[in-house]
Amino acid sequence: MSSSAPQETGRQRLWSVDEHLADVLAAIRPLEPIELQLLDAQGCVLVEDVTVPVALPPFDNSSMDGYAVRVADVQGASEEFPAVLTVIGDVAAGSGELPTVGPGQSARIMTGAPLPPGAEAVVPVEWTDGGTGGGAASGMTPASAAPEGAAGEVRVHRAAEARAHVRARGSDVQAGDLALASGTVLGPPQIALLAAIGRGTVRVRPRPRVVVMSTGSELVQPGEPLAAGTIYDSNSFALAAAARDAGAIAYRVGAVSDDADTLRATIEDQLIRADLLVTTGGVSVGAYDVVKEALTSVGGSGGSGGSGGSGGEDVQGGGVDFRKLAMQPGKPQGFGSIGPDHTPLLALPGNPVSSYVSFELFVRPAIRALMGLPDVNRPSVRAELKADKALGSPAGRRQFLRGKYDAGSGTVSPVGGSGSHLIAALAHADSLMVVPEDVTSVEPGAELEVILLG
Q1: Which residues are within 8 A (CB) of 148 and not within 5 positions of it... i.e. 6 or more apart?
Q2: Do the Cβ atoms of 87 and 152 come closer than 8 Å?
Q3: Under 8 Å CB-to-CB from 362, ≥6 apart: which residues?
Q4: What's the predicted TM-score (pTM) here?
Q5: How far is the CA of 32 from the CAs of 204, 370, 389, in angstroms?
Q6: What is the block-wise mean pLDDT of the chain (454 residues), using blocks of 10 residues?
């Protein structure tokens, strides 16, 4: 996205989207690494190169349920002229002492079991009579039901080449190989690999703890009855879910009334469990926008530490700056750090779409930066606008419109209007269409930047 020059609106500076994001990210430091148990490390970023201590698999083993055999003993075998071998025992996964397969002999072997000495290949049980003396077997008789099935004779109906159905030692990874590089995000496959090579713990940057709270005396918890003039609190649920989606551990705080002392006390209480605080509502210019009022004296403040110092142009709130951005929706924003540990705080507008768009543009990158990820932004593509009419956009504002992206055709279609209260439209969108500051109309067929949300 291209950066727009700072603007002035009266006495207050108008920040560009890029300036505000740069200011936020300049103040964010990745969380300190810790050692975590494997499942606790899911979703975290690895901060060490992990090498393989032992080869995987650690021994030659069977990829099939069948019979371990010598190649010469089954050469030329067919259904008409099967090779008849003596079965000397069972080799199960986890077997310690292994029988030695000699000339004319075989051993029943299970998937994952070590290849016994003397054996050169595995013939699947379906290539044999399963020791029953009949036709082709569909499976083995369970050892617990018929222990005598581990002895006797087996008829093999097909030949096998050397190493057939044998997984070689080290065929997955060799001892000393790099298993996972520093910077890897640990998902289920990576957790599986760490467990497979014997790692019980791993050193990672932890998932950030993000506390989300809505403000407004009009907000009611979902499930409770609505009184006159009240609405359900959707913002805290949306942003807590978005924080989890970004990789954070999210804590949602119930809606806080429009009282500065109550809000201030709530924020101070939450600092102990927060790596990042996010508020929504109360950042505009109304008489009841209490976030500004409350944050003028929250304990141990510190400046945002960002690159865009406000001088005397922005409303100062302890360590939080309140700004107007050249964007729609989401013009009013707040950012800074509060408390003795200088915990970052982002104060978002209260309109549902404004708060969600603001989260995607500013909070999500902050969460990803706390995790130590190099790529903090959502992916974006160029797409052709598919619409019945031109889209209008205010001059000097970067507009973010909800869209539905079709990867197959490379097109994007508007979903709903531009109103910042249209939650239903947001729920059916999978992208944000970006209209630059210097564009006031986008004709159907024009190419736009599209931020992918899914």
Answers
A1: none
A2: yes
A3: 20, 21, 24, 333, 335, 346, 348
A4: 0.79
A5: 9, 9, 51
A6: 44 87 95 97 96 92 96 94 94 88 96 96 94 74 57 90 96 92 96 95 97 85 85 89 96 86 88 94 63 63 39 46 93 91 92 94 98 93 96 95 96 78 80 96 96 92
